[in-house]
Design brief:
Layout lengths: L6 H20 L4 H10 L4 H25 L5 H22 L4 H16 L18 H21 L4 H13 L3 H25 L5 H21 L4 H25 L2
């Protein structure tokens, strides 16, 4: 465990990551809870980003496994894009590590409200299922989308899945389920690329992260069982309320303390 974290703060972090996994499996936006909770616990921004990245790749992997079992993954797009996502995330992470700690905090506080808007992007669109993809879609659009959104994931993270789904829907004309499955694969690659960069620079608190992984996966599992009609709308309200409280707290922590 991180030596400067008190026991009650550690318990609060476990609860936060459980809730993050729960809401992310239903409505997305779990990063809006997990990232601020680490910062409020007194962890430096770079360590918070690295530790959070280590935790969330496990939940992403579990979700991807479910999509693969149900045969929803578009392998052609994934195979030609996954490397670009990994490289983009590695570059994005190396970039954020060049910033001073207070500058990183400022960047996070700027990007948090932007990523919060992502959970309001509609997840239901008209059915435009496409079985095959053109050369431009496969070799240009998909790799470019994966690289740039992967770079965003490495630089910050929250909202990445939603941005990928929306991009695959708009530019590749996937239906939403295939887009979600493919987005999970690309998101896992960007998560791994970012993880490698944080790990090599020593910006992951493994002893703290491991119990948070368990809490996050448990929350995701229960959340997926709880995903009933209108549930996502209720959870979005909860996410925004929690985010607003933590966001205001972070502003006071970094700019008025």
């Amino acid at each position: 465990m991180y030596e400067n974290i008190e026991f009650w703060v550690f318990i609060a972090l476990c609860v936060a990551f459980f809730v993050a996994g729960f809401v992310d499996s239903i409505a997305g936006g779990g990063g809006l809870i997990s990232m601020p909770s680490l910062l409020l616990a007194g962890i430096s921004p770079q360590l918070a980003l690295g530790t959070n990245k280590f935790v969330v790749i496990f939940g992403t992997a579990v979700a991807l496994g479910n999509f693969i079992r149900h045969k929803k993954l578009i392998y052609k797009i994934t195979l030609f894009s996954i490397g670009f996502s990994l490289i983009g995330a590695y570059v994005g992470t190396k970039l954020i590590l060049l910033f001073d700690e207070r500058d990183v905090a400022s960047v996070i506080l700027f990007l948090l409200p932007v990523s919060a808007l992502a959970i309001f992007i509609p997840k239901k669109f008209s059915k435009t299922h496409q079985e095959s993809f053109s050369g431009v879609q496969t070799f240009v659009y998909a790799p470019m989308i994966s690289f740039f959104i992967g770079a965003y994931d490495g630089f910050f993270g929250p909202g990445t899945g939603t941005f990928l789904i929306l991009s695959f829907y708009l530019f590749l004309r996937m239906d939403m389920l295939n887009a979600a499955a493919t987005a999970k694969a690309i998101n896992l690659a960007s998560g791994m690329g970012s993880f490698f960069a944080f790990a090599l620079s020593g910006h992951i608190l493994y002893m703290l992260a491991l119990p948070l992984v368990v809490a996050n996966i448990c929350g995701a599992y229960i959340g997926s069982k709880f995903a009933i009609k209108r549930g996502a709308k209720v959870v979005r309200i909860f996410v925004i309320f929690s985010f607003f409280v933590m966001f205001i707290s972070l502003i006071f922590k970094y700019f008025f303390s």
